[in-house]
Amino acid sequence: MTEGDTQHTQQQRSNGARDGAVVWLTGLSGAGKSTLARALEAHLRSAGQRVEVLDGDEVRLHLSKGLGFSREDRDTNVLRIAYVANLLARNGVVAITAAISPYRETRAKCRALCGARFIEVHVSAPLETCEARDVKGLYKRARAGEIAQFTGVSDPYEQPERPELVIPTHELTVDAGVALLVEQLRARGLSG
Ligand code: ADP
Question: Cα(11) to centroid of ligand 1, in Å?
Fold first, then answer.
């Protein structure tokens, strides 16, 4: 039983729901979390696996509407994502999360909530690569001082110390990254 499991859930699970997984993609803005999440989603879905993506930017438009980027607000956002991901995963879904989730301590809380379902994946392109990509033009704005508390520029990114997987997207293709993720899931009987 994990922190995220209630007694009720335990009963449900003993009635047959098979565990999915929480694929927790963490890394700098522009590292490739959303790209990998969508590519993995497509792969798993076509293989018949139930899958859901929780994208940090999208969650901020709905479940976390109104939250900012202070440490407290970021933590609230990330813990909400973990909570929902765990609900899905304990009912057989592979929940893929794409959120910077910069703080080690907060990710540890997510792991505690999800227990063995949690697969921490460091999407690990270096800052220079992410900044050169600047997919959303945010680094440029952060360097110009237009965005405060921007991870990697004016707010820290605390690298995972013992993630289940590291995906260096500056060295691998998207397909190669997906293959590494599928390998992790296959080991849990979840490749679809
Ligand atoms: P994030 O969600 O981490 O902010 P995005 O997925 O939105 O990052 O953007 C990453 C960018 O890097 C995309 O434009 C993507 O096409 C590009 N990219 C290049 N190589 C890779 C790779 N191997 N894996 C993932 N993304 C890659």
Answer: 40
